Amino acid sequence: MLQSSLGRLLKEVLREKLTPSELKALYAGFDVIGNIAVIKIPEPLLPKKSLIAEALLASLKNVRTVLLQTTPVEGEYRLRGLEILAGEPTFETIHREHGCIYKVNLSTAYFTPRLSAERLRVANQVKEGEVIINMFAGVGPYSILISKRVKDVMVYSIDNNPEAYRYMQENIKLNKVEHKVIPIFGDAAEVIESRLQRVANRVIMPLPEKALSYLPTAYSALKDGKGIIHYYEHIFYGKGEDPLRSAVAHVSGKAEFRFDVEYAGIVREVGPRLVQVVLDLRVG
Questions:
Q1: Is 3.40.50.1110 the CATH number for 111-283?
Q2: How far apart are CA 270 and CA 284, in angstroms?
Q3: Domain spanning 3-90 has what CATH number?
Q4: Could you tell me the pTM of the whole model?
Q5: Position 3 confidence tier, pLDDT thresholds 50, 70, 90
Q6: Contact call for residues 108 and 116 (beta carbons, < 8 A)
Q7: Which strands, in side-by-side order, build the sheet including 31-33?
């Protein structure tokens, strides 16, 4: 369900329980991951967090748990603080997306359904016979979706979060793609330097906080220095500024290789004047 639809649903559910000013203060949307809803509540409404959560739980038949996000996504493993507000006391769920199954504990590994369309966009570009490196794989959504949609493909799927890696291993088995997705635990730069130099036709970098600094590593993984790099970055922008142009400038300043930008797009809004962008770079 789109965020705009979820936002309207939340306000409709709470129309009889909150004042008009309180309704206006509510955030516009929330995430549903498997059977867990994750909501943010502005500080003035925190005394009513249980009321809000119980109302939401009662209105969504497929939701069994409501969690409150208490901190931003942060840290080495991109985790967020979570508090159980209503329903079953768990952080673990199974999320279904594009015919794939992803098991995840939201307190120990990062996952967002807001990248669903972007994951599909990338997967639809992959051709038969490709070797792919996913440098920041998490619980495996990019890697597994690609392997399910492309018959002849090999995906090296790397992550340095031990919990995300454990769930990735389980998800590879759940989706029956053990022969196509190779899970690797470790830092992507160290893994590529030690064993995956010049092997890939395509490299995916779905970690905006690290993509720029790891760009030389991504290039070193491309076979014969040619292929596609899917590069992601968070960009702050001021009035009249183009975040896509800024991202291209950042890459141009870092890359010591020739590339063309085949596609540039805004994946999603992350915050006020903060967006996640993607650049598809054709290298060589």
A1: no
A2: 32
A3: 3.30.300.110
A4: 0.93
A5: low
A6: no
A7: 31-33, 36-39, 65-69, 82-87
